[in-house]
User: Fold these one by one.
Assistant:
Number 1:
Amino acid sequence: MPRDERMFGDIVDPSVKVGNQQWYTVPLSILVHTVVIGAIVIIPLLAADILPTPPSMLAFVAAPPPPPPPPPPPPPPAAAKPPEIPQSNPNAAPTEAPSEIKPETKIDTNFDRGGVEGGVPGGVVGGVVGGIPDPPPPPPPPPPPPAPVRVGGNIKQPTKTKDVRPVYPPIAQSARVQGVVIIEATIGPTGTVQDAKVLRSIPLLDQSALDAVKQWVFTPTTLNGVPVPVIMTVTVNFTLQ
């Protein structure tokens, strides 16, 4: 027989035939399966008391927390303080006019003590006769210092007793600056220079001239026998060597 015929022979002429069983086979098989499945399901339900009881789920639940403690009782009410009775001051002024004025008693007026002639009744033993005198008037303020006067006429120029040479500024030396600085100086009653200002200026030499003049000392100048401040003009000469 050819190979193709052997391969497709079962299709054309199958060896197993369908429908050769009896007609009641399929219903009987369904009934048997139903009974078996029902027995598997129903028997465990009927024997529920035999099956082991699963553990309770409450075993995994924590115990509830205890209730909070009760609040403390309220404090007892404070005892009411008795009202304070105001104390009367015997030295206080009366609020109502008295019906009569009684003479005062137990007042020591010192009348029984020995007094001093010309004293005051009720005075202090050992006090000053006639009382404490008025304090003396304050002394008059000192007279204002006399105004400085200019040298000339009857006012002679004071004599210099201390001379201080000015310091030649290095910057002025470098710039070859020289000349005469004229200063108006005020000499006090003691002969010291109280004030000085520049009348003729050389900017690089002014401060050095002022510093030197303020250190000069002169003889005091008197007017009618009284030392007075005077104003005079002085010169400071700067010369390059």
Note: The chain has a mean pLDDT of 77.
Number 2:
Amino acid sequence: MAVTRADKEAELQQLEAAFKGSDSAILVDYKGLNVPQVTDLRRQLRAAKAKYKVVKNTIAKRALKGTSLEPLEKFFEGTTAVAYTQTDPVALAKTLTAFVKTAPKLTIKAAVVQGRAVKPAEVTDLAALPSKPELYARLLGTLQAPMVQLVTVLNAVPRDLMNVLTQYEKKRNEQQA
């Protein structure tokens, strides 16, 4: 079935909306992947709150105009798919780099992370970063540390006084016995 102009316009509008709502995207060359592998990749990306779409290069280039993903325009050549997210670029990078280890035919072409173009090697570095929840936990621990130390210091005086009184009582009981 031939793709009509109306179908192309609809796809262009969908891509424009998706690209305007996303600030991070990674372009991949999917040549050599079979259908079960692509299905598995889509499932993993969905779990990371990301989307994966095989695109026509000319339509994708048009959809990029005026978005933060515009630096990717020159990389739309050959077989191209785009994985994009509105939330966590680290989760997207982790998912793709983990999948590349199991399916080496998938190659990362280029990426834009929060409006900044990055090289494919930097995507691997991005995947090595801790996730947002882990960073939040570390920040919370750092913020709580001074309060915990203050409480420990304030509790030390009564505790030490109690220890001294207990030792004095033991010594006094020994002297009386």
Note: The helical segments are 5-21, 35-47, 57-64, 89-102, 120-127, 132-176.
